[in-house]
């Protein structure tokens, strides 16, 4: 994991102003960031903005991006996801998320990045629950996002022909909730540049190194592919 004390990055816990709430968010960027440094909105998984999500933000900053992860559960008094093992209370909250509301929260995160880096191009990346939300945002907010990177985000109900920005997706062949054949069909129907890969040795949540489903080889390759893809479509200026 990247340390918050790494001298090459800056870290800030920020508050995003929304009409009905102040949404906390976790942000990081290279200390030598420029006005055109590319940026990424990170969409949390079901455990909220926990250690793996904060680490993703830090790793992106270390790779040359500015990044921010808004807390989409902020309105619901959610438990802390760090070290949590029972997903039941988190699922109950996730079921209450409203598409327009979370879209506004993520857009606010993107606008915060743009206020700090006025010439930035912005991507959106998410894990699990956040992977699906990222795909939704690729449709709903394609005017602000230039690339989408879902990690094992459900594709059920997502029309690939409505996605107009490049896609880099990472999925597991052993994922019981997202059949590999469905992923292949989704990939074949995309009309945008894409790199959608299915890892034979992995199941769901294979990038979460705090849980038993972690598959190091697949996680490492998926992350490298994703960073390369974001660099290609957003650019990196160190």
Low-confidence stretches: none
Q: What is the number of beta strands?
A: 8
In CATH, the homologous superfamily goes by the name Alpha/Beta hydrolase fold, catalytic domain
Shape: globular
The CATH architecture? 3-Layer(aba) Sandwich
Q: Kindly, what is the distance between the CA atoms of the first and last residues, rounded to a whole number of angstroms?
A: 21 Å
Biggest sheet, in brief? Answer: 8 strands, mixed
Residue-averaged pLDDT: 96
Query: Given the helix and strand composition, which structural class is it?
Result: alpha/beta
Count of folded domains: 1
The helix content, as a percent range, equals: 25-40%
What is the CATH topology assignment? Rossmann fold
Number of continuous helical runs: 6
Global Rg: 16 Å
Features:
alpha/beta, single chain, 6 helices, globular, 238 residues, Rossmann fold
Notes on the structure:
The chain has 238 residues and is α/β, with parallel strands linked by helices. It has a single domain (9-234), classed as Alpha/Beta hydrolase fold, catalytic domain (Rossmann fold). Helix content is 33%, strand content 23%. The protein is built from six helices and eight strands; from the N terminus they run βββαβααβαββαβα. The chain has helices spanning 51-62, 88-94, 99-116, 129-140, 180-189, 216-234; strands at residues 9-18, 21-30, 39-43, 66-70, 122-127, 145-151, 167-172, 194-199. It has an eight-stranded mixed sheet, with helices on both faces. The two termini are 21 Å apart. The model has no long low-confidence stretch (mean pLDDT 96).
């Amino acid at each position: 994991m990247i340390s918050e004390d790494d001298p090459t990055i800056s870290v800030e816990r920020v508050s995003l102003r929304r009409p009905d709430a102040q949404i906390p968010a976790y942000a990081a960027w290279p200390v030598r960031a420029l006005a055109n440094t590319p940026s990424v909105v990170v969409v949390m998984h079901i455990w909220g903005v926990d250690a793996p999500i904060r680490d993703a933000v830090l790793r992106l900053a270390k790779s040359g991006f500015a990044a921010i992860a808004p807390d989409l559960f902020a309105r619901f008094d959610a438990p802390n996801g760090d070290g949590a093992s029972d997903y039941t209370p988190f699922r109950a909250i996730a079921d209450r998320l409203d598409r327009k509301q979370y879209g506004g929260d993520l857009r606010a995160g993107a606008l915060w990045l743009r206020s700090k880096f006025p010439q930035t191009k912005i991507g959106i990346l998410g894990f699990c629950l956040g992977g699906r939300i990222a795909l939704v945002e690729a449709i709903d907010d394609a005017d602000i996002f230039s690339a989408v990177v879902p990690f094992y985000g459900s594709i059920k109900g997502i029309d690939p022909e409505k996605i107009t920005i490049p896609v880099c997706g990472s999925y597991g062949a052993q994922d019981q909730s997202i059949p590999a054949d469905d992923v292949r069909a989704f990939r074949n129907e995309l009309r945008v540049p894409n790199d959608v890969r299915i890892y034979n040795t992995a199941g769901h949540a294979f990038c979460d190194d705090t849980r038993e489903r972690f598959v190091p080889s697949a996680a490492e390759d998926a992350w490298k592919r994703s960073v390369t893809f974001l660099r290609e479509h957003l650019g990196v200026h160190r």
